[in-house]
Design a protein that fits this description.
By secondary structure, the protein is of the alpha/beta class. It contains 5 helices and 8 strands; from the N terminus they run H-E-E-E-E-H-E-H-E-H-E-E-H.
C-alpha cells in the first residue's frame, strides 16, 4: 500500500471518529435559542412577578406551568384561550379586550398562553397593563405545536368543556363586541 492510500484511510478514520463524537449533539431536538425540546414545558427560571392563579386543568389537552401563579381547580366551563407574547404590539392592544371579556362573561374560563421563554417580561407586561386574567407560560412552543396552530400571535381559541378546540381565530380583536360576536358564533 502506498503512502497516499494510508493517509487517505487514516484521514477517513479521523473524520468518522469526529462525526460519531458529535452525532448525539447534532441529533438532539432543540427549540428556539437552543432550548432543548422535551415535549414538557419547563417552569421559568427567572424571577416572575406574582400573577393570578390558573385553572388546574390542561389547556386543550396541553399541560403548561402557570405564569407567576399557581394552579387552582376550575372545571366544566368552556374556555377562551389567548396566545400572546410580551414583545407583540397587537397582543398588547388585545389583552385588555380579553380581560374585559373575562369580567363580562363568568360562564367562560378565560386564560392566556404566553408564547415566549421570557416569563419575567410576560408577567411584567401583564402587570403594567393591569391585566387580571391568568396566563400559562409556554417556553418552547409546546401549546402551538401540539395543536398545530399557525406561527402567529395573537391567536385566540375557543375550547369546549371536554377540552376539544371548537374554533381558532388567528386575528386581533380590537373591541369587546368583536370578541363577543366571534365567540357567540362558536358551537359549544
Amino acid at each position: 500500500m502506498n503512502n497516499t492510500v494510508k493517509w487517505s484511510i487514516a484521514g477517513s478514520v479521523v473524520v468518522l471518529a469526529v462525526v460519531l463524537a458529535l452525532l448525539p449533539g447534532m441529533l438532539r431536538n432543540t427549540g428556539p435559542a437552543g432550548v432543548e425540546e422535551t415535549g414538557v414545558d419547563k417552569p421559568a427560571v427567572a424571577q416572575v412577578d406574582p400573577r393570578p392563579d390558573c385553572p388546574e386543568a390542561d389547556v386543550a389537552g396541553v399541560s403548561l406551568a402557570c405564569l407567576g401563579g399557581k394552579s387552582v381547580g376550575l372545571a366544566g366551563k368552556p374556555t377562551v384561550v389567548n396566545v400572546w407574547a410580551w414583545w407583540c404590539e397587537p397582543c398588547r392592544a388585545e389583552l385588555p379586550v380579553m380581560d374585559a371579556f373575562a369580567a363580562a362573561h363568568p360562564e367562560f374560563s378565560v386564560v392566556g398562553v404566553h408564547a415566549d421563554p421570557n416569563a419575567a417580561n410576560g408577567a411584567a407586561m401583564l402587570n403594567d397593563l393591569q391585566i387580571k386574567l391568568p396566563s400559562y407560560q409556554d417556553n418552547i412552543g409546546v401549546f402551538a405545536g401540539k395543536l398545530a396552530l399557525p406561527n402567529v400571535v395573537p391567536i385566540t381559541l375557543v375550547v369546549r368543556p371536554d377540552g376539544t378546540v371548537a374554533r381558532t381565530f388567528p386575528r386581533t380583536f380590537s373591541t369587546l363586541a368583536e370578541l363577543e360576536a366571534a365567540v357567540s358564533e362558536v358551537t359549544l
